[in-house]
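Inverse folding, one chain.
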């Protein structure tokens, strides 16, 4: 794989700075924390705000709908500001989002507050990938991206393990308030990083150029993966609580199970994608996602299957986006890192808009979860077909 020639930032060291890895990993986790918070706290939100399953899904859809639209510009913002400033802005947006969430008392206000969460998510991959391409040598970037992307399942693990217990002991608002000081501390740490000397002052915000064929292929795969993952993370605890009669804490722990398995799988598959190549890695992951996704509706007869399905999906579907980001940071055929990262993220976020809303409508109209889980399995299967069909295009780009 070759480095992206459009990146002009200097490589400051021959090894990956540990402090940088901690920062970008934490930043990815904080940017996505609201998604797992909605899933883990789903039973609390439905009871407190008296909302339906489809309204719960709309919370996720608003967040990622905003992220999808703003991803048109997020890559340019990261290229214009540089990774350091873009990352600091990301963390300030996360802190502001959670401050509004804990102040809300109505469902409508909650929807409005989540717009800021979408703005943060649109900047997450462009800013963190920009930091990596600036400060990490090309031969180490796959590992750095894998570690960085593990912050997302780490957020799932943390949310699923802690939020239900904290919400039961205090309130869901008090539980979410703990995120604010962490995000502000990360923003301060970003400001203290070395300045970005590769930042261009000539860039102006405008609609991005149409994605080239390899980027379009990654966007299509990311769209399907995002659709399935968002439905899974939003509704798995509710399904376990309502249909499998699991307690609120045990149901929330399923999100933690996805998270802990996803941490290792993202690092592992980011390494393997260098050997197996990106298309083959994505094909393996999507086929495995179909198999494990099919276990979830079967868990009504054997509850232990839901744990196997959750862990398996953390090892497969949750790792797919990390592999896509390896391709973007390593390959020269996708264009500038910030721009390409934003476009691929846009596809991923678009899936997060479609998945929860469609799943919630299926639950409300059918009165059960079977149709929703069929949707999840189907979109993972389509992702597998896209991985197979686009294998030559992307292989030539990385």
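Residues assigned per position:
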């Amino acid at each position: 794989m070759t480095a992206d020639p459009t990146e002009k930032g200097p490589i400051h060291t021959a090894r990956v700075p540990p402090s940088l890895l901690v920062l970008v990993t934490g930043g990815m986790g904080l940017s996505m924390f609201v998604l797992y918070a909605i899933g883990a706290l789903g039973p609390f939100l439905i009871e407190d705000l008296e909302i339906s399953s489809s309204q719960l899904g709309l919370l996720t859809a608003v967040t990622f709908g905003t992220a999808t639209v703003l991803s048109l510009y997020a890559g340019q913002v990261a290229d214009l500001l540089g990774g350091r400033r873009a990352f600091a802005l990301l963390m300030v947006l996360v802190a502001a989002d959670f401050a509004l969430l804990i102040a809300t008392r109505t469902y409508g206000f909650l929807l409005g507050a989540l717009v800021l969460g979408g703005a943060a998510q649109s900047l997450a991959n462009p800013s963190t990938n920009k930091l990596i391409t600036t400060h990490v040598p090309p031969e180490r970037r796959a590992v750095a991206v894998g570690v960085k992307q593990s912050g997302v399942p780490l957020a799932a693990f943390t949310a699923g393990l802690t939020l239900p217990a904290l919400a039961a002991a205090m309130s869901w608002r008090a539980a979410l308030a703990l995120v604010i000081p962490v995000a502000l501390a990360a923003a301060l740490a970003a400001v203290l990083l070395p300045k970005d000397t590769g930042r261009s002052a000539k860039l102006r915000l405008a609609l991005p150029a149409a994605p080239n064929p390899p980027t379009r292929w990654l966007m299509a795969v990311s769209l399907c993966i995002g659709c399935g993952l968002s439905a899974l993370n939003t509704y798995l605890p509710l399904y376990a609580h309502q249909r499998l009669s699991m307690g609120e804490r045990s149901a929330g722990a399923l999100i933690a199970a996805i998270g802990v398995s996803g941490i290792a799988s993202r690092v592992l598959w980011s390494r393997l994608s260098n050997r197996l190549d990106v298309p083959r890695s994505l094909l393996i992951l999507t086929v495995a996602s179909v198999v494990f996704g099919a276990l979830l509706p079967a868990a009504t007869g054997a509850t232990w299957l839901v744990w196997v399905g959750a862990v398996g999906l953390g090892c497969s579907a949750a790792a797919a986006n990390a592999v896509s980001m390896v391709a973007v940071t390593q390959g020269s055929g996708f264009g500038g890192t910030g721009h390409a990262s934003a476009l691929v993220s846009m596809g991923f976020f678009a899936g997060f808009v479609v998945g929860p809303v469609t799943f919630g409508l299926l639950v409300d109209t059918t009165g059960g979860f079977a149709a929703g889980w069929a949707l999840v399995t189907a979109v993972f299967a389509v992702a597998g077909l896209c991985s197979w069909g686009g294998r030559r295009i992307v292989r030539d780009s990385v």
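The chain has one domain: 18-199+211-395. Residues 18-199+211-395 form a domain with the Growth Hormone; Chain: A; fold (CATH 1.20.1250.20).
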